[in-house]
Amino acid sequence: MTKPVISITYCRQCNWLLRAGWMAQELLSTFGEDLGGVTLIPGTGGIFEIRLGDRLIWERKTDGGFPDAAELKQRVRDVLDPGRDLGHADRARETKG
């Protein structure tokens, strides 16, 4: 079975490459064994989208800015492996909610 790939499309005009790279690192450190990779895709016009395969996980304009690491990991987990415990990331969500 082929492992899914996450793609992060970022606005190069806005200099969001470092942010995209950091998010890729966070995702690989948590889901590295479950992913086929993380691809960074340069774009323009303020775009910042994160997809798991064809499924949109985060869109800057719709979701209001950028996700923190815990929120992003929770959204990826909810699609990739809903039963997985993310430890501190899940506990952070419980204290917010």
Automatic annotation (TrEMBL):
It comes from the Bacteria. Keywords: Redox-active center. It holds the Pfam family Rdx. InterPro entries: Selenoprotein_Rdx-typ (IPR011893), Thioredoxin-like_sf (IPR036249). The keyword Transcription regulation does not apply. The keyword rRNA-binding does not apply. This is Rdx family protein.
